[in-house]
Amino acid sequence: MIRDSYIKTVIEPFKIKTVEPIKFTNAEERKRILHEAGYNTFLIDAENVLIDLLTDSGTSAMSSKQWAGLLDGDESYAGSKSYHRMHDVVSKITGMKHIIPTHQGRAAEKILFSIVGGEGKVVPNNTHFDTTRANVEFSGALAIDCLNEQGKHPEVIADFKGNMDIARLEEVIQQYGTDRIPLVMITVTNNSGGGQPVSMENIRQTRAVCDKYGLPLFMDACRFAENAYFIKTREQGYADKTPLEIAQEMFSYVDGLTMSAKKDALVNIGGFLAMNDDDLALQCRNLLIVTEGFPTYGGLAGRDLEAIAQGLEEILEEDYLQYRIKSTEYLGRKLDELGVPILMPPGGHAIYLDAKRFLPHIPQEQFPAQSITCALYLDGGIRVVEIGSVMFGRTENGKFIAPDLELVRLAIPRRVYTQSHIDYVIEVVKHVHDRREELKGMRLTYEAPMLRHFTARFAYVD
Ligand code: F0G
């Protein structure tokens, strides 16, 4: 990194070679579009979105080297050169013995939990992402979150709010017994918990508990590079290490991992499953052949593997990571200064509005985070995602059970938007916050039995 000490501005460490126009709509049009979409922003056509902060997944801008790699992709069915390139890069970073490509993260989860999950099994995690939970539960197993106490309070400022609650993890292991727990998972950064990082110390402690009870530890590694950069800047002893060295240490404590390359591999599609255990890898590959494809492509084209390999090299560049974490923080700090309640401190890939404090007049069973999500689209054509009672709330015996956190996530696609886009977002969020008392609660008019947030439809409560 070459930067003169008198320069404070963190700039995008790239210049723009290709552009894609975005379409402006007026308030009248957006009102109609949102109504037709059943007040669910997942159901809006992307064309009608001005700034799309729905997800940081698969939305990255690829580099010129990644695009060049697409031409170089080897499309052989078996043993392609691109597989070997991807294999070697993943192996360098993770040290894993078996690397199994999949078409995205949830495919890796599906294969893993089809084999180790099942009726009566229990999987602890700091916080399961929704697809991870769904795949654990779909196998018949129970998914248990063991998030540390600080992570449950959006206003608390702490360095590693994504950490596993180690005491709670031990409690769960003792309560259910090691026979019922096929593995422990740790998600870095903790997406559903606010994009908050997990410390190396916490990964080490989780490993120690797993060793004590003889349990394997797997990492949900989607945002491993962002997590590594937080460790570098926040945890003692890591300031002089490179992101690669930190990532290597993180992976040295685990027995396997699931990865969505759509995040920290800077590609639009892809993922992988990696592990050290030969037997488990054999079972995973056998299932992969049935569901994804031959083990050297796993549902991906050779060119996709090429782009993943290149993206994994680029994601660990320190200039990139500094820009990534600082630019997300810029959005968070500005909103905080304007008095907008956000989950603090800012996360790695997203800023999360705290809907409970934003809309104290709307109870959680009336989906306050969904109401903010709709308002951001109506007022500025911005698409964000609800991570609250729609995604994680449930009704048991007629009683509504609310999740701890009621959040609206503004996820920042990698290398896509510039600072003026983000300044526009700040202006729109402020506008919605200024008129927050006008916002109304919502009710469901349709919900699917699983992952209901993707297809639910809503109406405003009078
Ligand atoms: N694990 C985590 C922590 C994730 O954030 C995601 C995806 C997955 C697993 C599944 O990966 O999408 O490739 O199948 N998160 C996206 C998001 C969808 O918007 O946060 P996938």
Fill in the CATH topology of the largest domain. Answer: Aspartate Aminotransferase, domain 2
CATH architecture of the largest domain: 3-Layer(aba) Sandwich
Query: How many domains, in number, for the residues?
Result: 2
CATH homologous superfamily annotation of the largest domain:
Type I PLP-dependent aspartate aminotransferase-like (Major domain)
Distinct compounds present = ligand F0G
**Number of discrete helical segments:** 16
Radius of gyration: 21 Å
What's the level 1 CATH class of the largest domain?
A: Alpha Beta
What is the β-strand count? 16
- Mass-distribution shape: globular
Helix content class: 40-55%
Beta content? 5-15%
Rounded average pLDDT: 96
Q: Could you tell me how far the N terminus lies from the C terminus, measured between alpha carbons in angstroms?
A: 56 Å
Poorly predicted runs: none
What's the story with the biggest beta sheet? 5 strands, mixed
User: What class would the helix/strand composition place it in?
Assistant: alpha/beta
Spatial strand sequence of the major β-sheet:
2-8-7-6-5
Describe the structure.
This protein is an alpha/beta fold and 462 residues long. The chain is 40% helix and 14% strand. It folds into two domains: 27-56 and 317-460, Aspartate Aminotransferase, domain 1 (Alpha-Beta Complex); 64-314, Aspartate Aminotransferase, domain 2 (3-Layer(aba) Sandwich). The protein has a five-stranded mixed beta sheet, with helices on both faces. Strands 9-14-11 form a three-stranded antiparallel beta sheet. Helix 7 (200-213) links the parallel strand 5 (184-187) and strand 6. Helix 8 crosses helix 12 and helix 14 (368-380) packs across helix 16. It starts with 26 loop residues before the first helix and ends with a strand. The model has no long low-confidence stretch (mean pLDDT 96). Residues 55, 57, 104-106, 129, 131-132, 187, 191, 220, 222, 260, 262, 271 line the site of ligand F0G. The site of ligand F0G has 15 residues, from helix 4 and helix 5.
